[in-house]
User: Which sequence fits this backbone?
């Protein structure tokens, strides 16, 4: 067996053992259960292979979500399962039937019109609809003629089926087992009421991530009916769950589908899937930077990388926060300000990448985070950051900026300040690198003693790929820590986090150096 296919098959077996589909409780339907049809000219069931590697079905309305799942994954199906969108008792039964029969599950009377539903039945070439509605005075499963008896109300799902002029087979909502499946006897009785069909050809190597919410049962069942393997991701964020990251990494599926609006926009979802497929975790144990507290230890260029890593471990222990991981973080000076313009005229002295790499490697091997401290001269600071891309393309490596150390040219740039637009360019560049390389989010730390060193900082915004930390920095000058903290932490932009940087020792007790108001800093400089 091809190694790629073997990996996916193994992950399918794992998924079948661990997945619980929320309210439906369904397990993956056996692929060898036949769907039968009377049509000799066209296949009774034809699935659609998704054209893209990732796909998000993002509707929040259950009927629309179910319709979208059918439109995206089914080319043709002579059989469908119908239920009323507001019938909570019918939804589990409809889902169980759809999964067992490999048929789309559609909802009537919800956020889509009867005409839209009838159009989908026509597109699919539906000949028979299993309608899940109470059948008073009838058996649990009974054949119903295309036209109901005079004066009878077939219900919204039945009306939709009759409007599309298809045969109706009624299924009582109360035939689901405690495991969320149709009982064997009921399933066989149902099959006996349906036209004979051949064995279905289903999707291969498609992984569907689900975050089951009330009303999504039909859409999830449709995805599974098409042959996708489902895996539950509570909250819709695979980056937050190590088991989801492992599943995606092991599967290496041809297509990964996110079912429901919690999986976010298509671009962010595609990045998260690619990152999970690469499998690299941050020191937090997930592919998220937070929650955590980062404790930084500076590395001198003449230091031994292993010694720096050992010191970082010791420093971090002093600043541990109950209930959150503490992450030792090695700060490596990638460049320093220079009074002279230098050969390139940028007033910055850059370290060679090969001199920085041993620190990055040692820190990452120890499970630490790395910050590359980047100096700024007259040219846009993003250009200094770009020079470090070989290191920034490594998981767990971020950037630290120090606007107040900037050496400007007095024309295009001023010394001791960095416009927010420049910082935003760094955010955009880091986001581009993490997206392209499939990396977890990067950390961008901006040191400030006073807020006006970054004019317009109220416009700064983090993005999913980059977390921003404003570090109140008391290391330069005789100002008090309280003054610096109060100044820098005033009117912090939404989503931006806070850090603290000060002398390692002012008085006994390192924890006393760290302010606790108005918020606990997520980054602390230990040296």
Assistant:
């Amino acid at each position: 067996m091809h190694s790629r296919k073997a990996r996916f098959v193994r992950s399918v077996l794992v998924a079948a053992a661990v997945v619980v589909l929320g309210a439906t409780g369904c397990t993956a339907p056996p692929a060898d259960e036949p769907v039968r049809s009377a049509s000799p000219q066209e296949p009774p069931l034809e699935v659609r292979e998704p054209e893209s590697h990732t796909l998000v079905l993002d509707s929040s309305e259950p009927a629309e979500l179910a319709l979208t799942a059918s439109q995206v994954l089914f080319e043709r199906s002579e059989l469908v399962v119908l239920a009323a969108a507001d019938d909570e008792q019918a939804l589990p039964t409809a889902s169980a039937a759809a999964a067992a029969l490999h048929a789309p599950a559609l909802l009537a009377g919800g956020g889509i019109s009867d005409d839209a539903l009838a159009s989908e039945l026509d597109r699919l070439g539906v000949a028979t609809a299993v309608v899940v509605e109470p059948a008073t005075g009838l058996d649990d499963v009974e054949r119903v003629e295309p036209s109901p008896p005079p004066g009878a109300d077939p219900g919204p799902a039945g009306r939709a089926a009759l409007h599309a002029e298809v045969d109706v087979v009624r299924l009582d909502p109360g035939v689901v087992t405690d495991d969320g499946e149709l009982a064997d006897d009921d399933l066989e009785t149902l099959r006996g009421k349906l036209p004979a069909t051949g064995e279905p050809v289903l999707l291969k190597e498609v992984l569907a991530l689900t975050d089951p919410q009330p009303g999504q049962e039909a859409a999830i069942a449709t995805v599974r009916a098409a042959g996708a393997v489902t895996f539950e991701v509570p909250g819709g964020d695979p980056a937050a769950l190590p088991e989801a990251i492992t599943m995606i990494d092991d599967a290496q599926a041809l297509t990964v589908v996110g079912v429901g609006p919690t999986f976010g926009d298509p671009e962010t979802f595609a990045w998260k899937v690619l990152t999970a497929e690469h499998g690299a975790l941050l020191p937090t144990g997930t592919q998220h930077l937070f929650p955590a507290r980062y404790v930084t230890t500076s590395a001198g260029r003449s230091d031994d990388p292993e010694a720096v890593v050992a010191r970082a471990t010791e420093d971090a222990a002093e600043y541990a926060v109950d209930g959150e991981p503490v992450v030792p973080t090695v700060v490596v000076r990638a460049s320093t300000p220079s009074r002279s313009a230098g050969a390139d005229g940028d007033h910055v002295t850059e370290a060679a990448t090969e001199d920085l790499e041993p620190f990055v490697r040692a820190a990452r091997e120890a499970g630490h985070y790395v910050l590359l401290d980047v100096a700024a001269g007259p040219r846009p600071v993003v250009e200094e950051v770009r020079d470090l891309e070989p290191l920034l393309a490594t998981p767990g490596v971020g950037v630290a900026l120090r606007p107040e150390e900037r050496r400007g040219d007095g024309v295009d740039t001023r010394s001791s300040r960095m416009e927010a637009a420049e910082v935003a360019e760094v955010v955009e560049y880091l986001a581009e690198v993490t997206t392209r390389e499939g990396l977890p989010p990067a950390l961008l730390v901006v040191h400030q003693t006073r807020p006006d060193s970054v004019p317009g900082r109220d416009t700064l915004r983090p993005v999913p790929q980059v977390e921003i930390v404003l570090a109140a920095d008391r290391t330069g000058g005789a100002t008090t820590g309280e003054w610096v903290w109060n100044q820098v932490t005033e009117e912090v932009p939404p989503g931006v986090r806070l850090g603290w940087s000060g002398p390692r020792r002012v008085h006994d007790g390192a924890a006393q150096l760290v302010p606790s108001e108005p918020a606990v800093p997520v980054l602390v400089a230990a040296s």
